[in-house]
Structure formats: structure tokens, C-alpha cells
Amino acid sequence: MGVIIEFVIVPLGELSLSKYIAHVVKLLEGKRVKYQLTPMGTIIEVPTLREGLKIVEEAHEAMFALGAKRVSTTIRIDDRRDKDRKMEDKVKSVFEKVRGDKD
């Protein structure tokens, strides 16, 4: 089973966040974590909640290493244990219903 975590990290007081987000993406790529960058956040797919929270913590702390004085992080967790689901499965399920393929 896997866990899907969406997180948003905002170094407060900054107008441009791209350098911070680029650092997070490099962190994820270094850990070989499956991720999806969205315009408003980042989604990761990890084997365990513990692993995911550790990654989010590392990304949060990295903001301070980059010079941020205050950081706000929001986390949403989808931890489904009855069925193995991937990020793509969740999106596919919605679009099947939009097209009327499945109920």
C-alpha cells in the first residue's frame, strides 16, 4: 500500500517562490520519490506515512537553510489501506465518471 501526501511550503515574506520550490524538487529527485508538481503545491507518493512526513520535514527545514525566517507548511494525507491506489488512479477514476465510463 502507499500513501499520497500533498504539501505546500511557503516561506513567508517572499514574493517569488520558484527558487524554494526548485530546491524541494531537487530533494525529491535525489530521494527518487514519485512526485507531481502542481501550480499550488507538490504531491508525493510514498510507501509509508512515516517516510512521507520525514520528506516533508526535510523540505520544510530546507527553507530555513535557504534563508527563510518564517515558514508555513500545509499537509494533506491520503492513507488508504484497503486498496493499493496511485495518484493516477485517483484522477482516472474521476474522469471515468465524467465520461460516464463507470459509476
Automatic annotation (TrEMBL):
SUPFAM superfamilies: MTH1187/YkoF-like. Transmembrane segments: none annotated. One of its GO terms (cellular component) is cytosol. InterPro entries: MTH1187/YkoF-like, Thiamine_BP, UPF0045_domain. Residues 6-94 form the Thiamine-binding protein domain. Belongs to the UPF0045 family. This is Thiamine-binding protein domain-containing protein. It comes from Thermococcus litoralis (strain ATCC 51850 / DSM 5473 / JCM 8560 / NS-C).
